[in-house]
Write a structure and sequence with these properties.
With 562 residues, the protein is α+β, with helices and mostly antiparallel strands. It has 21 helices and 18 strands. Strand 16, helix 21 (526-539) and strand 17 form a beta-alpha-beta unit. Helix 5 (106-123) runs parallel beside helix 7, helix 6 packs antiparallel against helix 7 (153-174) and helix 7 (153-174) runs antiparallel to helix 9 (186-202).
């Protein structure tokens, strides 16, 4: 049984945990209580810890303190959704406890887990039992108990996980919503999957199939330990492309590279981007890259022949010149944050999904719109980049989604040369209402008070569809049913969308409103949206009603009532 771990092994444990949650993220997603197609706890946790795994592969750590620090830093910037932010807080507290440690044993682990729990509880305004907070707290408590008797780290981690599963099973009884749905807490489940992956690495068990870059926990890959069959993609391909135009969107290229390889990392600045990918067709990767700029330098190495040479004790020639240029580009990307100097007092950053909604915010004076919302929560780093690019002394952030507020709040201490103020808007209509009253001449406190009051008067309803069968809160929901939500609570279901819209229009929150705005989504044709407009015009004759194309995914209609 393992008594202690070093930095390299801790790093590999985190990578293993990331691979496990990535493999099981859909299972965790399906634990979300609402049957709407935005159950993204597993996805958010996977993307969050995946950011740490990527950094740990690039930065070998000599000590546990270094590895934990790299993990915490990457998690902070990569945090997505509430579950991702809480996960980052758990590891941030862990990092503080082991910052000066070369190695750790079970006692150190127990203390670090407790530090993580304290950081998470401190950051959550109203901690709720029956969540990942409960699971992590009880797991840490058990770790402390057993560490006194047997400080072997493998034993302590195993006991903590076992206690965590007991706590997870009990979340059904602690949380009335979970009890109604008959499921355990999704965040708690995800956290235990990560811990189990870490324990599996400690025990020498293989990573799940399909995991990226299953390298041993050493400062350099041990090619002698790899067979050619274990190298799925033969060519380690690295190249630099000089951009030929501004605002190059690399997402399509990223998707293409993922289709022909793995272990993909793209670093970029305003002038160039660097690609690292493992693939069997490096020529295809390079040819496709030229659609986005001019190829400057490339390094292609056959990992199968490298494995043979190293196994035979031969020297493998390096590419020192290219490595130096890569290091320079990575340094500019990682360490050189480009912060726009202030040109005005106020700036605003908003989160919204859909071209129509983005256009509305732009028309209202928002400086930067981050594409995101349900099913695609932006990370803290995503939000921070847009804040940095906003040329203002004070930047208001409108998350417009309850699951993005915590990630946005993590930007406040990260801001350099700017004051960041996060207004906790939970819907796009709330964000729009806040923008309508912002006064560029008023002081911060006056604006915060006015904007908060304004979005507090907004009532938001949404219409989407059921992603699966469910028996929730007295509703027998079938997959494909139309679902109406009022203030994020299930309002009703129907197989006919017009009937469901009629019931919404006649509800107390809508029928007495003075102003109603209907945003229709990307899957709704204008002719169908006009029918929805007639429904509300008939039910609410005294209201001023506006119909706009929001272009939002997932939600057919988003309805604002004031």
């Amino acid at each position: 049984m393992r008594d202690t771990i070093d930095g390299a092994l801790f790093a590999q444990m985190v990578i293993h945990g990331a691979a496990c949650i990535n493999q099981q993220k859909q299972h965790v997603n399906e634990l979300n209580v609402f049957p709407v197609p935005d159950g993204d706890t597993g996805t958010n946790m996977s993307l969050t810890i995946g950011a740490a795994a990527t950094e740990l592969r690039k930065k070998p750590a000599a000590t546990v303190g270094q590895a934990a620090s790299t993990t915490a830093s990457a998690l902070l910037r990569g945090a997505r959704g509430n579950s991702g932010v809480i996960l980052s807080l758990l590891f941030r507290g862990f990092s503080k406890a082991v910052k000066d440690k070369d190695t750790i044993d079970g006692r150190d682990l127990a203390i670090a887990l407790d530090f993580g729990v304290a950081a998470a509880y401190k950051a959550v305004m109203k901690p709720t039992e029956g969540t990942v907070l409960t699971v992590s707290r009880l797991a840490a408590r058990r770790a402390a108990e057993v560490a006194r008797e047997n400080p072997a780290i493998e034993h302590v981690l195993e006991e903590a996980i076992q206690e965590g599963h007991v706590a997870l099973d009990h979340t059904i009884e602690q949380n009335p919503v979970l009890k109604k749905a008959g499921v355990v807490d999704a965040g708690g489940k995800g956290f235990l999957i990560i811990l189990q992956g870490m324990l599996d690495e400690l025990r020498g068990l293989p990573m799940p199939e399909g995991a990226e870059d299953p390298a041993p926990a050493k400062e350099k890959a041990d090619f002698a330990a790899l067979s050619q069959e274990e190298i799925t993609f033969a060519f380690d391909t690295v190249f630099i492309v000089r951009k030929t135009r501004e605002n190059v969107d690399l997402d399509p290229y990223r998707a293409y590279l993922n289709s022909i390889g793995d272990s993909l990392v793209i670093g970029e600045d305003d002038e160039a981007f660097k690609v690292h990918v493992h693939t069997n067709t490096p020529g295809d990767a390079l040819n496709e890259a030229q659609k986005y700029g001019v190829l400057e330098l490339a390094k292609i190495e056959n990992m199968r022949t490298q494995a043979e040479d190293l196994a035979a004790g031969k020297h493998v020639q390096s590419t020192d010149d290219l490595e130096a240029i890569e290091a320079e580009l990575e340094g500019a990307h990682e360490g050189g944050r480009k912060i726009a100097p202030p040109e005005k007092k106020y700036g605003v950053v908003a989160v919204a999904a859909g071209d129509g909604l983005a256009a509305v915010f732009k028309d209202l004076g928002v400086d930067g719109v981050i594409s995101g919302g349900q099913t695609m929560n932006p990370s803290t780093d995503d939000i921070m980049k847009v804040i940095d690019a906003t040329p203002a002394e004070i930047v208001f952030v409108l998350p417009n989604n309850g699951n993005i507020i915590m990630a946005a709040q993590q930007c406040v201490p990260l801001a350099e040369g700017k004051q960041v103020v996060v207004l906790p808007t939970k819907t796009v209509p709330q964000g729009i209402s806040a923008m309508l009253v912002m006064d560029p001449e008023a002081d911060v406190e006056t604006n915060v008070a006015a904007m908060t009051e304004a979005f507090g008067h907004v009532r938001t309803s949404e219409v989407t569809y059921a992603a699966r069968d469910s028996d929730f809160d007295g509703f027998a929901i079938k997959r494909g049913d139309y679902l109406a939500l009022a203030e994020h609570q299930l309002f009703g279901t129907d197989r006919n969308i017009e009937k469901l819209l009629s019931r919404l229009a006649e509800s107390d929150a809508v029928k007495d409103a003075e102003f109603i705005t209907i945003f229709y989504g990307e899957d709704v044709k204008e002719k169908e949206a006009q029918k929805a407009l007639k429904v509300f015009t008939s039910a609410c004759p005294g209201a001023e009603i506006t119909l706009l194309s929001g272009g939002q995914p997932v939600y057919y209609y988003m309805i604002s009532a004031e």
